[in-house]
């Protein structure tokens, strides 16, 4: 893959996509918060709930 | 196969999240006691509701201390009885059935929401702790008057509740 235009060549484990990692962590955090809100506040808080 | 550390990290996080989702639902079903509406209510001959003890005369019946049962007939385009009256701090089990077409039975703005199918009895139990008034509506299109099909659930303060009409 190394051609004339290659500036720097790095191995598989040296490539660290911080940006992608940060985005995914933010995405997971949003999902968790939304799930907690949806289940515990919107659903469980929405009495009357079917209990039998 | 060479998997990057970050990729391992978000695979693991995704798994943890799935386990989290499942455990919250398990928590709801066990600790909180949330149930799904199922076929427990059994079947009934929808052409002969008047021969059934429960539905011949749709009503609310007291079956124990703070325990009530409401036998509700959902038909084009009313709910019987209407209103359903109950004292606060009670447990109410609805038995709902239909003599004509599929209806919905939704206590508006709550999780008490089920389908009413001719030939089946829909059974759902809820707890009513605070006095108040709820609307009941049909949320399955059932014909020309569907949009007018509604009822009321009135939860009265315990001391104001009259037993009248329930112990005949």
TrEMBL record, chain B:
Keyword field contains Metal-binding: yes
Can you give the residue ranges of the Cytochrome oxidase subunit II copper A binding domain?
65-167
Q: Which PROSITE patterns match?
A: COX2 (PS00078), COX2_CUA (PS50857)
- Where, by residue number, does the polypeptide cross the bilayer? 9-29
Chief localization:
other
Q: Which UniProt keywords apply?
A: Copper, Membrane, Metal-binding, Transmembrane, Transmembrane helix
Molecular function terms from GO? metal ion binding
Locations listed in the record: Cell envelope
Pfam families membership: COX2
Q: Does the keyword Membrane apply?
A: yes
Q: Which InterPro entries match?
A: Ba3_CcO_II_C (IPR034214), CcO_II-like_C (IPR002429), Copper_CuA (IPR001505), Cupredoxin (IPR008972), NosZ/Cyto_c_oxidase_sub2 (IPR051403)
> Which top-level group of life is the source organism from?
Archaea
Kindly give the PANTHER family that the UniProt entry links to this protein: CYTOCHROME C OXIDASE SUBUNIT II, NITROUS-OXIDE REDUCTASE
Which protein is depicted?
Cytochrome c oxidase subunit II
- Organism ancestry: Archaea, Methanobacteriati, Methanobacteriota, Stenosarchaea group, Halobacteria
